[in-house]
């Protein structure tokens, strides 16, 4: 009989395991898991493996796909229809029209095209993000399966902003997705809400070792006058967060952040946004930046733990 490892707490499509089928208890990524046999679980695991292989193929054909898939998983996990603060729920399929999800229509369509039957959209998005990291040279990330799909978009703003008297505007967290201008205070508050420690948030931000963001360079005058959604979807020049190895999942993001802090960055080597730079402006964050710049294995292990927590 094949043994399957499934998260015990999974919001499962999985029927509750019969006590006799439970054979082993162990712990993976800090979560208690049960090992038991279940035909539905076996189908999901096979489907997830097929999707993982398909992502490897897609990234081999076009390495820039990896960043888009990872960003898709982040945006799905933190904006949840049930108001929880993390855990992929597939609500992203209803949220693509929102401004914060510019350019995520394509990776979502890719996931839907590659997704075998038997996987929820939430599982597929979470698996594709993990596989994209692995296909770019990052760690293999163990995640559970059995997430249920939301049936509607999640609210884009928090019920009540997270604020304290005397806050600067950049300290206040207002939205379910983080704003790129958040200060160190805002960034910490945001990821505390998501349930991550300083070390885990600094590791998760290392996702920006992959991928690019839009610039205004070479845009038509019409686009510069009126920055429509279409202009943003088709921006001709995208700047990599870090230019040394923008398609490789490695720790160069952290050494470039330290070079930025030392003012020894060469022009064009990195194109950070304020929340990246926040990681070297705060003493506790900076300690982890230094540790991840020194130790790629530490970065990989912490990223894998933080990602598994994010998509749960
Ligand atoms: C404070 C937190 C964050 C902010 C403000 C932020 C903001 C952004 C912005 C503005 C872009 C550029 C989008 C574009 O122009 O296409 C971007 C790209 C990206 N983000 Fe983040 N991000 C944050 C955290 C994360 C996290 C936690 C992950 C993943 C775990 C992530 C993964 C990515 C990836 C991979 C890209 C590149 C996408 C591509 O190449 O298509 N980001 N992010």
UniProtKB/TrEMBL annotation:
Annotated catalysed reactions: 2 a phenolic donor + H2O2 = 2 a phenolic radical donor + 2 H2O
PROSITE patterns: PEROXIDASE_1, PEROXIDASE_2, PEROXIDASE_4
One matching Pfam family: peroxidase
Cofactor(s) the protein needs: Ca(2+); heme b
Record's keyword terms, sorted: Heme, Iron, Metal-binding, Oxidoreductase, Peroxidase
InterPro entries in UniProt: Ccp1-like, Haem_peroxidase, Haem_peroxidase_sf, Peroxidase_pln, Peroxidases_AS, Peroxidases_heam-ligand_BS
Molecular-function GO terms, alphabetical: heme binding; lactoperoxidase activity; metal ion binding
Domain Plant heme peroxidase family profile: 46-312
SUPFAM superfamilies attached to this UniProt entry: Heme-dependent peroxidases (SSF48113)
GO biological process, one term: response to reactive oxygen species
Family classification: Belongs to the peroxidase family.
Name assigned to this protein: Plant heme peroxidase family profile domain-containing protein
Species of provenance: Pelagomonas calceolata
